[in-house]
Write a structure and sequence with these properties.
The chain has about 70 residues and is mainly alpha-helical. It has one domain. The protein contains three helices and no strands. α1 runs antiparallel to α3. The longest helix has 29 residues. The radius of gyration is 15 Å and the shape is elongated.
Length: about 70
């Protein structure tokens, strides 16, 4: 299903889903204590971490030749 979107897009979809599922935790745990601005920063950091993990997985597959 995801092969029509591009090369290794299933990892990208998984990373985005993981990030979207972590947003309610950010809202529940971070925003009440530190505010909306810090919550937004934490959400963006989580997005960058998820994308870095995705690119790492894709790079590993390219390195291995899959």
């Amino acid at each position: 299903m995801f092969r029509r979107l591009g090369f290794h897009s299933d990892e990208m979809a998984l990373a985005l889903t993981l990030w979207l599922c972590s947003l309610p935790l950010v809202v529940i745990l971070v925003v009440p204590f530190f505010g909306l601005k810090v919550g937004g920063i934490v959400a963006l950091v989580l997005l960058v971490v998820a994308m870095a993990m995705c690119w790492g997985a894709c790079g590993w597959k390219l390195l291995k030749g899959k």
